[in-house]
Structure formats: structure tokens, C-alpha cells
Specification:
97% of the residues lie in helices and 0% in strands. It is mainly α and 116 residues long. Helix 1 runs antiparallel to helix 2.
Length: 116
């Protein structure tokens, strides 16, 4: 077909027409490339903005969760301190008579041993 094209239009006209089509094609390609670059830049900016929003949202959630855990740990520490205080007195109330009984038994055994 290109041979027939050159025969009908002539070498000069056909070459000029082909060059014109190539120039139009190059212009459209450049315009398309520029439009794609602008669209990608807008997409990149929008993506960065949304990632920043998501980061802020997660930061808020983590801060809330951290505060909630701090409150729970603080309450647990207070409960453990009260429990420790009660256990200390209960342990003293248990071990003091036990220690006295052991000492009394030891004294009794020693007195029996020393009599004989």
C-alpha cells in the first residue's frame, strides 16, 4: 500500500504527508506524556495526604489505647498495694503464733532432755 501511496501522490507530497503525521504523532505523545506526569503528581500528592491522615488517625488510636492501659495498670497497682498490705498483716498474724508454738515446743523438748 505504501508503494501505491507514493505512486499516486508523488514522492515529495507523500514524504511531506508522512512527516506531518509523524510530527502530529510526536506532539500527541508529548501531550499525553505531560498529562500522565501531571496526573501522577496529583495522585502522588493525594496519596501522601491520605497517608498522613491515616497516620494521624492511628496515632490518635494508639494514644487512646496507651492512656486506657495506663489507667488500668494504675488501678491494678493500687489493688496490689492494698492486697500486699492486708497480706503482710495476715502473714504476721499467722507466723507469730506459729513461731511462738515452735519456740515453746523447742523449749519444752530441751527441758525434757536436760531433766534426764
Amino acid at each position: 500500500m505504501s508503494k501505491r501511496f507514493y505512486e499516486v501522490l508523488g514522492e515529495d507530497v507523500a514524504t511531506e504527508l508522512v512527516n506531518w503525521f509523524n510530527d502530529v504523532d510526536a506532539t500527541y505523545r508529548a501531550d499525553l506524556r505531560e498529562m500522565n506526569e501531571l496526573n501522577f503528581a496529583r495522585f502522588d500528592a493525594k496519596l501522601g495526604e491520605r497517608l498522613a491522615q491515616l497516620d494521624a488517625k492511628w496515632e490518635t488510636r494508639w494514644a487512646g489505647l496507651d492512656a486506657k492501659w495506663e489507667g488500668r495498670w494504675g488501678g491494678l497497682d493500687a489493688k496490689l498495694a492494698r492486697l500486699e498490705s492486708r497480706l503482710t498483716w495476715r502473714m504476721f498474724a499467722f507466723w507469730a503464733p506459729t513461731a511462738l508454738a515452735v519456740l515453746g515446743t523447742g523449749v519444752g523438748v530441751m527441758s525434757l532432755l536436760l531433766r534426764h
